[in-house]
Design goal:
It is a single chain. The protein is α+β, with helices and mostly antiparallel strands. It has a domain of about 80 residues. The protein is about 30% helix and about 20% strand. A 5-stranded antiparallel beta sheet has the order 1-5-4-3-2. The chain is elongated, with a radius of gyration of 23 Å. This is DUF2116 family Zn-ribbon domain-containing protein.
């Protein structure tokens, strides 16, 4: 006899079944992931927000210019990026997945899309 991992009632059905219902399966997994995944969830939410902000700019030939102030006004958080790319000339691009920005002079940034 197998018992449900959540409510411990007897399970009927397939031999590899672990839960008696979808409710118990969801409740069990929500409890399991609640605290340990909170940090990851918050970081992913910030990365997703940064990506949406960069994606909101219309790119012409794969790039456009804007100001850092405009990015910050939209809620962009410069602390959250996925990777860096440094060119042979020494310029460093900051990427959130396939969209990135290059800090320029006078508070400007060039937004680019990696192909």
């Amino acid at each position: 006899m197998k018992e449900c991992l959540e409510c411990e009632t007897e399970i009927k059905g397939r031999a590899d079944k672990k839960f008696c219902s979808d409710y118990c399966r969801n409740a069990y997994n929500n409890k399991l992931n609640k605290d340990s995944k909170n940090l990851v969830r918050n970081i992913n939410n910030r990365l997703r927000k940064n990506y949406r902000i960069l994606d909101s700019f219309e790119l012409k030939e794969g790039k456009t210019r804007t100001t850092k102030t405009r990015l910050m006004d939209k809620g962009f958080d410069f602390e959250y990026i996925t990777n860096l790319y440094t060119t042979k000339k020494g310029s460093t691009y900051y990427f959130v997945y396939d969209l990135g920005y290059l800090p320029l002079d006078n508070d400007y940034c060039m937004i680019v899309k990696r192909e």
